Amino acid sequence: MVTISGVNKHFGELHALKDIDLTVDDGEVVVLIGPSGSGKSTLCRTINRLETVDSGTVTVNGKPLPAEGRALANLRADVGMVFQHFNLFAHLTVQQNITLGPVKVRRTPKAKADERARQLLERVGLSEKADVYPSQLSGGQQQRVAIARGLAMDPKLMMFDEPTSALDPEMINEVLDVMQDLAREGMTMVVVTHEMGFARRAANRVVFMAEGQIVETATPDEFFDDPKTERAQDFLSKVMTH
After folding, report:
1. What is the pLDDT of residues 101-129, one digit of tens each?
2. Segment 44-71 mean pLDDT
3. How far is CA 100 from the centre of its chain?
4. What are the angstrom distances between the C-alpha of 1 and each of 40, 53, 78, 189, 209?
5. What is the enclosing helix (H) or strand (E) of 44?
6. Assigned fold of 2-239
7. What is the four-CA torsion angle of 72, 109, 160, 28, rounded to 10 degrees?
8. Where in the chain are the domains?
9. Is the pLDDT of residue 177 over 50?
10. SS3 of 98, please?
11. How far apart are CA 143 and CA 134, in angstroms?
């Protein structure tokens, strides 16, 4: 589904991504973890070209990332993205937020898009919120709407960039539960998160990054029970509450 090879990215002096090679298979859940500033979010954003790369290649579904224009818009329609800060349109209702993409980009008839929005709201546990505005929802509810909005485009891949880090602790699980259901249903997912429990339960593969590099890649059990590198051991000793 995604092949990243030899990718480098600089922000001025900062070498944010260093020779990154990563593949994500169809139906796989890959969780990126690591200390802040390790390049996880930047890597996530290169997959749908929210960040350009200085060298190397990114292909999605067998096609190289287009530079711009309609081809890029089409690619982005296939890659759902859920951000840290929801990014919902404040002036649109929940239902309008979800139907906007399908109607505008996919040219879905409005009645069909509305019907799909209702199904998705039910799926994320918010059927009664179709006609309210984002400001009337809690953070956890807004993030679940953002997930429904991503799914409305029928993406081939869903990306989550720290989807729970802006939420109050008691709202985190309601979002992770929805994500876990998606993972179980076989959605291809790339998730940047600090939630180690989620990584352990939902990931097929954990990719540990530090200082712009992929340091270790393993199954969740291997990674959490027996990390191979000192950098990963050090990280886990700080984040895992024993």
Report:
1. 899 888 999 999 999 999 999 999 999 99
2. 85
3. 20
4. 18, 19, 11, 10, 21
5. helix 40-46
6. Rossmann fold (3.40.50)
7. -90
8. 2-239
9. yes
10. helix
11. 10
